[in-house]
Design brief:
Elements lengths: L9 H14 L2 H10 L2 H8 L4 H8 L7 H7 L2 H8 L4 H8 L4 H8 L4 H10 L2 H11 L6 H4 L6 E3 L4 H11 L8 E5 L5 E6 H6 L16 E2 L4 H11 L4 E4 L5 E5 L1 H19 L12 H27 L2 H6 L1 H30 L7 H32 L2 H31 L4 H28 L2
Parallel strand pairs: 1-2, 4-5
Antiparallel strand pairs: 2-3, 5-6
Helix pairs in contact: 3-5, 5-8, 7-9, 8-10, 14-15, 15-21, 16-21, 18-19, 18-20, 18-21, 19-20, 20-21
Length: 451
């Protein structure tokens, strides 16, 4: 058994590849990359820093290099294209479909784009230019502009003959579009019906109702619709109802994955472009903005604490217990925030069910707040043997956890209404709210009850 056959998962494959690089085993590296599929090669490149990627490019077979470039993260693609000439890029994109060419050229400068456009087949060039005309965050940028469509009124036999003659079907085609003379979508025909139904029948008899996406729809909204309807194939139309493309299973997966990745990055204050092996300077810059914003909110919390300097000077136990109040509120609010942002992403929150959600989260916060307030209060009494301190922290925990849950609902819904991504700034705002409310309630109650 060869060494490359021994790994059974991605991590083992990565370790094996690192071993080959350390040993400088060029023949084994070439053989390994020959056996990997396009997606596996792309994920492998993304698992190494830039310096190592430069070495690995040399082992990727030339006939799949364009497909690999279209699959890797945009930053990696840009780093590679940066050192290539227009003739090199022409060679790489030769034989690629319009979607893949658009992905590769998306990171090229205008001079290279112009030169490569001129070398493309006229139909492919028109499709690529059309894709590049869309904004990056709309459905049209993700769609496959090549569709298999026939006019209404033709027989199934004629459709099969037409498809065979022109070699139209590929491994991504799932349905045939039926359009009128203006290319307005009328319905879809499954490949199963095309084969099993009477061949003398016309396509109109077996047209299915269709669900379409508008080419200008935001990708995040499309992702929510696709998940809710569990669709793996969708026609894409413009505002006039004209068929302009389709989303295949791979396109749908890319949209949902990109949307999930962006949501996860935004929740942590990380830029859209950052990945695991982004260079140090670029990562530091992208994260620094949100660290600065977080610093301002931290100073706001510190300002609130500063207003109670007198009580803190007299009772040291309060300073010891303060972080507990803020931490419990922060965790409770984060749990709610995560659930609500997921609900917004799936399109589950609208109309009257928001009021039910407010009530539900308030009761959850109060229930958990009561339980954990009593737990923390009991620990505090055993620790400091002071009933007044126990009362203060018990009440503060209850108040902060209750309001934290309510804030976890209110903040993302307000941000959504203001057309601000809740995942991008919701966590920072929530942290500020739970810190300020926690410190204010704890130290305020201490001032009223103890002093």
């Amino acid at each position: 058994m060869r060494d490359e056959e021994k790994y059974t998962n991605t991590e083992e494959q990565l370790l094996y590849l690192q071993k080959l690089l350390d040993e400088e085993d060029t023949s084994a590296l070439k053989e390994l990359f020959t056996e990997l599929d396009i997606l596996a090669i792309a994920r492998t490149l993304e698992s190494f820093p830039a310096k190592t990627r430069v070495l690995l490019w040399d082992y990727i077979p030339d006939d799949v290099l364009g497909e690999v470039l279209a699959e890797v993260d945009e930053d990696i693609r840009a780093d590679y294209i940066e050192d290539l000439s227009a003739s090199d890029v022409e060679q790489i994109v030769r034989g690629l479909d319009a979607q893949e060419v658009a992905e590769v050229l998306d990171v090229a400068d205008e001079e290279i784009k112009t030169t490569v456009y001129a070398s493309l087949d006229q139909e492919i060039r028109a499709q690529v230019e059309n894709l590049h005309a869309y904004e990056d965050d709309v459905v049209g940028r993700y769609m496959d502009p090549e569709t298999v469509n026939v006019k209404q009124g033709v027989s199934l036999e004629a459709v099969q003959r037409y498809i065979r003659i022109h070699h139209l079907l590929d491994d991504e085609s799932q349905q045939i579009m039926i359009t009128d003379k203006e290319k307005r979508l009328l319905g879809t025909l499954t490949l199963i019906d095309l084969i099993k139904q009477p061949q003398e029948a016309v396509v109109d008899e077996y047209m299915d109702d269709f669900f379409t996406l508008n080419d200008q729809m935001k990708v995040s909204d499309a992702a929510a619709l696709l998940r809710s309807k569990e669709l793996h194939f969708v026609p894409v139309c413009d505002s006039d109802g004209l068929l302009v493309g389709q989303l295949n299973a791979a396109d749908v997966l890319e949209i949902t994955q990109d949307d999930a990745d962006l949501t996860l990055k935004h929740m942590s204050g990380v830029s859209d472009e950052e990945e695991v092996f982004t260079p140090i300077a670029r990562s530091a810059k992208s994260r620094g903005i949100w660290l600065g914003i977080n610093l301002l909110t931290a100073f706001l919390a510190a300002f609130v604490i500063g207003q109670f300097e007198a009580v803190l000077d007299q009772i040291v136990a309060l300073a010891i217990l303060m972080p507990v109040v803020a931490s419990m509120g922060g965790i409770a609010g984060s749990q709610t925030l995560t659930v609500v942002i997921r609900g917004l992403a799936l399109g589950q929150l609208a109309g009257n069910n928001k009021r039910w959600l407010y009530n539900k989260e308030l009761w959850v916060g109060m229930s958990n707040g009561l339980v954990w307030a009593l737990v923390v209060g009991g620990i505090s009494y055993l620790w400091f043997s002071d009933p007044l301190i126990t009362l203060v922290i018990t009440l503060a925990i209850f108040i902060n956890m209750s309001l934290a849950n309510l804030s976890g609902v209110l903040i993302p819904l307000v941000l959504k209404r203001l057309q601000i991504d809740p995942a991008l700034s919701g966590a920072v705002i929530l942290t500020t709210v739970t810190d300020v409310v926690g410190f204010l309630s704890f130290l305020g109650l201490a001032t009223l009850i103890i002093l």
